[in-house]
Amino acid sequence: MTFNNRIVEESVESIGKIVNTALNHCDRNTDSIENIEERLLAIESEGKSEQKETIKQMQDTITDLKCRSMKNNLIFSGLDFQQNEICDAKIQNFLEAELGINYRVSFGNVHRFGKPGLNGVRPIVTRFIYRREMEHVLSRTYKLKGKTFGISEQFPPEIENKRKELYPVMKKAKLRQKSEACPRQALYKWKTIQ
Fold this sequence. Notes:
Strand order of the largest sheet: 2-3-1-4
Structural class: alpha+beta
Distance between the termini: 118 Å
Largest sheet: 4 strands, antiparallel
């Protein structure tokens, strides 16, 4: 029996060694799998941040291209709509009658667009061929003060939304600049407060 016992013990020991070796391999494989999973997660998060950055850059590029394509555009609002109107002629007449521009301005494209604005009429977008002519028109918009007409530069919606946030800040700055420019008025305000 001792001989059989020794054979059984040796067999158990060899089986134990095999099991221990298998367990060691299993532990190493588990560690390797965990390490690979961690690296995959890191790569995915890097990829997502790179994708987000790429998307942000593409959006910025698109916004820049929109701005460039609209840089010579003005929006005219408040002009009455007539059936079968020719927008080029309407704008040319408006420039002469309201702004006193007596020469022929070169337009690239003129058409109505968007939602109805002032007086329930859709605005007209006008693309100027020459930037200096557009700037001349803008410099004469002070003549429209108190009238129902409006002229503004065209910007993409992304830029226009950001500008809307800044309009109140600009108004406060202008008011502050005005009060600093007129010391008598500021003194009067100071006296009425006290």
